[in-house]
């Protein structure tokens, strides 16, 4: 199929960061106190926004409550009062970048930068080699972090991978080794899916993305059936698929993948129904679907942004109408400014259930609310009373041990709990059924780390503490 851009809707990408926030015309009308605190929060948390988000998504008459403003501009409530005050004072006295960075990192290191065992349990170690730009948590799926794609067209304030963009290079996942990815997939027949993730792989030019996909397409390892690309670009920069210089080349690559017999799934991150309303995003979705790729949509449930069943119901209905597939509602992960964004698990279940009850069966492909925890993807499947005890009904969608998949278990009901590690087993049990096996997996991984050449025990202990 021939793809041709439409110059009539062309838009040039313009990016803004903490150092250029004053160049955003709309910020001139913000209260000075709010702008000062946003700048201070942006010294600790990644901040990048672009002209599309500013001009077409944010309602500047509804600041600071507008959900897209909350989604893209770091908020004062993301920091403790004393932390916010400290960063504001450094800015006021025009402290050096080094001094600001040191103060910011002292805060960052307390915020669980790599949750759910990403650093110490997910990274493959084989033959004395650490695959530092890969994760392999579930048998079927390998995650690959291409170095050139560890950025985004804009940053989400709740991003669970915020450490990728915060200047903490020792905690960053990234690899340029396309050969290692190909070799690893061939050596692991259980792997059927590779997920290019980040950051956002679609911030890369198409010619760079091809360096990672070409051999997979050309030689097609027998076990590989699906290529996934995790991206927020449909929401934050749909012109990536319409009028960017290599937009047509990107769509031709998508078509090449699907024509090769490999399924291509664009894992789209839509946080709010507003992100689906513009002509640009609707055109971009149509162009992607014309390549034979599918689009699956997912996002976490986040206070201040989408904690409303009507938002989710509208979002799922619109996705189906446009030809995309609702896939996951996640529980916000226990990392970064979690206290500002978190919701109790009971509230997450209520919001999901209310939204789910207002949509047709075609929208009910969505699963949630789901926690991507150290143990695996765990679904809050219900709140019930069993043997006189009120409980959360939980179910593994995916497990670090594949035998846990689809297994149901129970936790004592806790109205304040917002994450799995805050829950206790029901019915007087001392441990959840998976505890012993999970400890064994962690122990085996630690033993593999000890066997690495030049193993640095002190650095490992620090890394595990951060994880």
Helical amount: 25-40%
End-to-end distance, in Å?
46 Å
The number of distinct helices, counting runs of at least 4 residues, comes to 15
Strand percent estimate: 15-25%
What value does the average pLDDT take?
Answer: 91
Describe the global form: globular
Let me know the largest β-sheet: 11 strands, mixed
What's the order of the H and E elements?
EHEHHHHEEEEHEHEHHEHEHEHHEEEEHH
Strand order of the largest sheet: 5-6-7-8-9-10-11-12-13-14-15
Query: Structural class per helix/strand content?
Result: alpha/beta
Rg measurement, Å: 22 Å
Low-confidence stretches: 454-467
Beta strands, count: 15
Give the oligomer, counting copies of the same chain as homo and different chains as hetero.
Answer: single chain
Give an overview of the whole structure:
The protein is built from 15 helices and 15 strands. With 467 residues, it is of the alpha/beta class. An 11-stranded mixed beta sheet has the order 5-6-7-8-9-10-11-12-13-14-15. A two-stranded antiparallel ribbon has the order 1-2. A two-stranded antiparallel sheet has the order 3-4. Helix 1 (32-41) crosses helix 4 (81-92). The longest helix has 16 residues, at 435-450.
